[in-house]
Amino acid sequence: MNLPNKLTLGRIIIIPFFVFFLVYDVFDSATISRVISAALFIIASITDFLDGYLARSRNLVTDFGKFMDPLADKFLILGAMFAICFSDYIFVGFETTIDISIIRHLFFWTAIVVVFRELAVTSMRLVVAKSSGAVIAASWLGKVKTVTQIVATSAVMLEPVIAPFCYGWLTILSTIAMLVFTIVSGVNYIATYWKFINTNK
User: Fold this and answer.
1) Alpha-helical regions (H) of the chain
2) Predicted confidence band of residue 65 (pLDDT cuts 50, 70, 90)
3) What topology is assigned to 1-90 in CATH?
4) Which of 78, 91, 121, 189 has its CA 20 to 30 A from that of 180?
5) What is the pTM for the complete model shown?
6) pLDDT tens by residue, 124-145
């Protein structure tokens, strides 16, 4: 159990806590709940980048890490996005120049696209690895996609606290960026590795 794997486990442990605080305003203060949820989410996101960097730079890559790290990443993003959609307070008291229901629906459907993309890419990874032994490495588009997901998720939590003068546009633009890079990176993965899939079997 080396340091990168401990960070991965730490990320998994943090996830249910920020999901809980995202869904329920237990402090009876939307501002406090937003800040605590966002802080836990950002800490977990930092471990996402840190554990991979340490594993590669210190030659600490393990089978456990290869399995758990991408799984923890998906739990992190999907857990946060669906907690936001289900939250009692995130879209309440959000001062916007556009109807808040439009922003909520945009975020919800983007979350659905993220789920489909992750299922498609993960399935392709498994099929390609089994059929050819090739490992689908993370592309720069995939890394940008992850960054946009973290930024958009953080924005919807924190915009009313740190940037209320944006009136929802920070959340809208970052969500659109997340949607675009989620689709583009998914299509790129499928187009690049489709040649490894034998459709005759």
Assistant:
1) 3-23, 30-57, 63-86, 100-132, 140-162, 169-193
2) confident
3) Four Helix Bundle (Hemerythrin (Met), subunit A) (1.20.120)
4) 91
5) 0.88
6) 777 776 766 655 656 788 889 9
